[in-house]
Target: Cd(2+)-exporting ATPase
Amino acid sequence: GAPVSNVAGIGNGAKNGVLIKGGEVMNTFANVDTLVFDKTGTLTEGKTAVTQLKDYSKNQLGLTIAAAIEKQSDHPLAQAVVKFSADHKIGFDKVEVTDADTIKGRGVKATADGQSVLIGNLRLMNDEEIALTDQQKSDLEAIQSQGSSTVIVAFDGRVQTILGISDVIRQGVKESLATLKSLGIKKTVMLTGDNLQTADAVADQIGIDEVHAELLPEQKVEYVKKYQEQGHKVAFVGDGINDSPSLVTADIGIAMGSGTDVAVETSDVVLMSSGFNELIHAYGLSKKTVMNTK
Ligand code: ADP
Ligand code: MG
Model:
């Protein structure tokens, strides 16, 4: 009967680095036709590094202040800024950060050495009425069109620094998405908080069907619901704490194993070493297991 076959399927999954939480999950997974992915840490490795520095400030003051503030954040972009500054012996430890507030989907607002500082994306700059010069706009676009993310640093009423931060697309993603399609997936989607230009550049490299960028976590959930309302069975694949609402809402929540404990707890399937091979294996296994029980 069904339970025995399902258990066999689950056991087979565990051997291949996939944790599937219960037989019912296998049945639901087999019916999934829409795969929705978070970008950073899911389609990419989440190993961020600063690869470009546009400095419009004196003595790299923009970078120094940014590093001091980002030291308090665990966002992947923040970690890249801090590492780059440490590697380049930027003396950011002397900067006194007295308060720092996260602005959802935008970045950070902080006070450093008594001065108010903004670090984040173009939306944050627009909200705070910081205008970019034509040079700064073209620098920003040049970086983003290559698929790198950007961090803008502003104080004194103007942009002081723009950092380009790259991340590595996971190996074999393009081929894996094609394989998943051959197994029964009809639509692949990328949802990200990152800017549209960067998201599009990454999407072009991996051949994903749809891209939605500049989203807040609750807007990602809205997309998951929208696909479900259209009659699709949706799996959401993600890693961050940010993504828990989407992992829970999707018919199947899939956590990349390198993800946070929260993501692992709130998901139905855990890919233990974050490989796309594991995802293919798990989906293929669900199809076979369900066939065996029919
Ligand atoms: P995601 O994890 O998908 O990037 P977030 O909501 O964490 O989504 O962030 C959305 C955007 O806000 C980021 O892409 C970035 O532009 C900006 N941002 C958030 N936190 C920071 C930070 N600490 N430093 C710089 N930019 C940030
Ligand atoms: Mg994220």
Q: What stands out?
A: Confidence is low (pLDDT under 50) at residues 1-8. Residues 38, 40, 240, 242 surround magnesium ion (ligand 2) (CB under 6 Å).
